[in-house]
Amino acid sequence: MITCAFGYLLAEVPLSARNILENPELKNGVKGFSHWPTFPQIFINGEFIGRSDIILIMHQSVELKDKLIHLLPKVDKEE
Fold first, then answer.
1. Which site from 1, 21, 40, 63 is most exposed, i.e. has the minimal number of CB atoms within 10 Å?
2. How many distinct helices (H) and strands (E) make up the chain?
3. 64: exposed, middle or buried (Cβ count in 10 Å: 0-12, 13-18, 19+)
């Protein structure tokens, strides 16, 4: 059971993940795309956001919620 707003938000946002460590070509491609040498790397809608420490800072400042809120499924307000 999710007990915090951030967890609820992430549970509702469609996510995907790739294990780039299994594919050196993909790993180098991601590094080249983001211009960032270390992993993990977080992308939202194809935009490189940062590593897990950046995501934590964004969560603490509510900036992450603002980036993710538009990805939530639309809910009919009359329901």
1. 1
2. 4, 2
3. buried
Q: Region 48-57: what's the mean pLDDT?
A: 87
Alpha-carbon span 64 to 68, nearest angstrom: 6
The structure's pTM equals 0.64
What are the structure tokens assigned to 31, written together? 């590094």
Q: Say if CB 50 and CB 42 are below 8 A apart.
A: yes
Q: Which of 47, 44, 43 is nearest to 20 (CA)?
A: 43
Q: Does domain 5-71 have CATH number 3.40.30.10?
A: yes
Annotated domain spans of the chain: 5-71
What is d(CA 45, CA 50) in angstroms, rounded to the nearest whole number? 13
What is the Cα–Cα distance from 50 to 76, expressed in whole angstroms?
33
